Amino acid sequence: SALLDVLEEVERREQQVEEELGDIPDEFLDPIMATLMEEPVILPSSGVTVDLPIIKRHLLSDATDPFNRQPLTLEQLKPNVELKQRIQQFVRQRRRNDDDDDDDDEYNTTNNNDDG
Q1: pLDDT, tens digit (0-9, with 9 covering 90-100), for 82-91
Q2: Dihedral angle of Cα 76, 78, 54, 70, to the nearest 10 degrees
Q3: Is the dihedral of CA 65, 82, 52, 32 positive or negative?
Q4: Which single residue of 51, 67, 111, 115 has CA 20 to 30 Å from 87?
């Protein structure tokens, strides 16, 4: 089914992200799908932060907050700007560390060859 394909693709991408970033703090993970949030939004009645694409998908079939069943529309969602900035900073830092590690390996290899 199309939904199954989408879920499998999300899972594949998520595994790739986790391999890239290592341990991700729980507060950065969507509580419904346990995936890294890219567009965190706050649900007004429960106060829970979720990822926008995931809550959009939920609202297609059920116009309620999944945490307390209160009525919910897309227009009521509030971007969690502060959390989004922290997630972006975390991702940049992890990717920069990965790049630094790669550079160090190349640098060390070159140095070892010169010495020996």
Answers
A1: 999 999 999 9
A2: -40
A3: negative
A4: 67
